[in-house]
Amino acid sequence: MRQLYIDGEWVDADAAAGIEVISPVTGETLDTVPDATATDVDAAVEAATRAQTELEAMTAFERAAVLEEVTDYFVDHEDEMAELITLEEGKPLRESYDETKYVIESSADYGHDAIRLFGDVVPSEHRGRFAYTQREPYGPAAVITPWNFPLEIAGGSIYGAIASGNPVVFKPAEEAPLTGFHIARAFEQSSLPNGAFNFITGAGETGAELVGHRDIRLIAFTGSTAVGQEIGKVAAERSATVLLEMGGKDPILVFDDADVELAARAVVEGSNWNAGQVCCGTERVIATAGIHDDLVEEIVAQTEALTVGDPRDEGTDVGPMISERIQETAVSQLDDAVDQGARLRSGGSRDGLFFEPAVLDRVSPEMTIAREETFGPVTPVIEVADPDEAIAIANDTRYGLQAAVFTESLSLAHEAAGRLQAGGVFVNETNNYWERLLPFGGYRQSGTGGRYGSKWHLEAMTQVKGVMMNYDHD
Ligand code: ADP
Fold first, then answer.
1. Considering only CA atoms, which residue is closest to atom 20 of ligand 1?
2. Cα 176 to Cα 88: distance, rounded to the nearest angstrom
3. Which of 121, 140, 176, 287 has its CA 20 to 30 A from that of 85?
């Protein structure tokens, strides 16, 4: 059984039980990781708590330098890590390299943003007084991540926390925890003080122990809305700060004047990236009547051109889904939609965890597939009369992560960007899109507590202190 990384050392877990990590690609057991207990969680949080003073005393420049060292490790181990991500998570190797490259290229940003985490000098209402603000860390942070981007999601949350002075206890998802060992080794070989980064493995119960720990002051969670909301409640009981990035039901709106081929490409990419298992994947297509039929034809043609297969093969576009549990949600929504009158235009067959990308039209906004997160390679298309109806349906959801609109009309594009209730809106680009220096996060039940990415990330992970100095007290 693997070990845990606590207080700068690899240690045996208290946990007698382990979790087998099974590859969705080969079906083989890749490794066994500890199912960390409350005792393990305690040891990790205590180490983080002890490291607070030393981490906070470092200058932002010194913390930024640590992130550069961590990035060096990723550069040196990129091939190994990309292959591991594919093996433990199932995404095509090409997408795993997108993930490693993104993390390598963007990790230094967090350090750069941290050294520019300026305060304000505030005009005092009294003479002879100097008032200013400064941003300070919250304290020990729990970073809890899902399996679908084992490096990228973890990387962002951990970097942001460390760069702004919050010691971390990181717990990856039980389905794909092995990439986390590389993250831990990257910090181990860096000059970060012992205890400022700790790594434990385990399932939901370990996560619950961690977020419930009395000394955890900041929780950065990415995962399902149900678990995020549960964490929100636990955190509220002791006023811990949360940054929650949860589910989505992201739409792509396509209006009559759009470029059909471009819109279809965006839809097919957004629906099938990582076999549709992306929080900001394309979960709904809403097309106005004048373009609907052509768009569906084009989506079907492009979807049928995708190659489903072994994600280690260069030509593969769609690998296996992570688990039967996740696949079952997509399958039952698909079956339910067809029962309710949706038309299956393409795909939908299964072979173990491999799911042939499906396209459905005649989907109505009341169907479960148009309301609940599907998290699979399924494209449901809803036909509407006009842009007004499209925007109304797009907004009729409890989610609001990202949205996209395809139109050549400048005024329609601006109107949609303003009216769509989502944390990010992209014009003539897929909704499954990251722009490095834009904030990432959701409206409504897709997210709360601030935004990931760029300066917003650092702001969300720090608190503001107001200081006043009376220099004229004779
Ligand atoms: P998914 O449904 O995509 O697997 P989850 O929200 O269940 O996503 O899991 C995301 C992460 O949250 C995982 O690391 C998981 O172990 C953790 N987790 C699950 N339940 C809890 C909980 N009650 N408290 C804290 N973390 C949890």
1. 204
2. 5
3. 140
